[in-house]
Fold this sequence. Notes:
- By secondary structure, the chain is an all-beta fold.
- The chain contains one helix and 27 strands.
- It has one domain: Beta-galactosidase, Chain A, domain 5 (Distorted Sandwich).
- Pfam families: Aldose_epim.
Amino acid sequence: MSRFGRLPDGEQVISTVLQAHGLRLTTISWGASVQDLRLQGVPHPLVLGFPTLAPYLTAGGRYFGAIVGRAANRIAGGEAVLDGRQLHLDRNEAGRNTLHGGSQGSGQRNWRRVALGPDHIAYADHLPDGHMGFPGNLLVRATYRLRPSSILEIEILAISTAATLCNFAQHSYFNLDGSDSIRDHELTCPATHYLPVDDALIPLGEPAPVDGTALDFRSPVPLGPRLDETVIDHNLCLDRQRLREPRPVASLQAGRVQMQIETTEPGLQVYTGDHIRPGSTGISGHRYGRNAGIALEPQCWPDAPHHPDYPSIRLEPGVIYRQTTILRFAQQ
């Protein structure tokens, strides 16, 4: 454990390094974030991150590597109805919508380190009743484990004292070849449908076929031409419900490095970093710009409270929310 920096109120953010099974993982308590990730034999980091705390506290570094929630992604209008009660949530995106649980959601909080071993680390946070407009005292715990064969497993558990909305996501930006952009990365995902969105990235309604769109990744697709075609910040529809056990949902490859994703979640938000702007120097030694990394975020579908036919993000009191995502890394 080492000191990573201090927040404006003086609270200390800590950094912890794990090394096992061919992976070297650095996490920080701010947002329970992945700050750095290395694969043995690869000279560059596999994620975007910053060497100091300051960039994480700015708009330019917000959510980099964080566990975002208690409701990841967007809720239209910052409002939802739960058991007949109108919830007025924090509208932290252009004053219109709620993004990643509000301006002080879990990705913008300093978590407590609650467990540490040679191959795992766990962080926990308490989101009080009414926090950002959400009901229920909610306890959340995120555990990172390094497994044999260069596997990073991410488990998120949560429990609430009242019915609430709960949908967490791990928000790392991946760059597997160490270049300035992800143009030469190839993405594969078997999803046959995606969610079309409006200009505020709010889903329009029912899923649409990926056929003939920039969201068709059923065969390995180089990202460069797709980035020229459109801005990708969409949910790929994997299932209609969350599963008990993770299953393969996507693969990302660049150069000699491949990452395979398995998850319990019914959706995969794909965001190609179109709004990343050069700012502070990253752990790679240069400033990140547009398309410097790709966020592949297993989660439930966005704006679920306004779409009864979407996978539900309702969490009953006393029921344990459990999400598992597995990242398998290899060199070709």
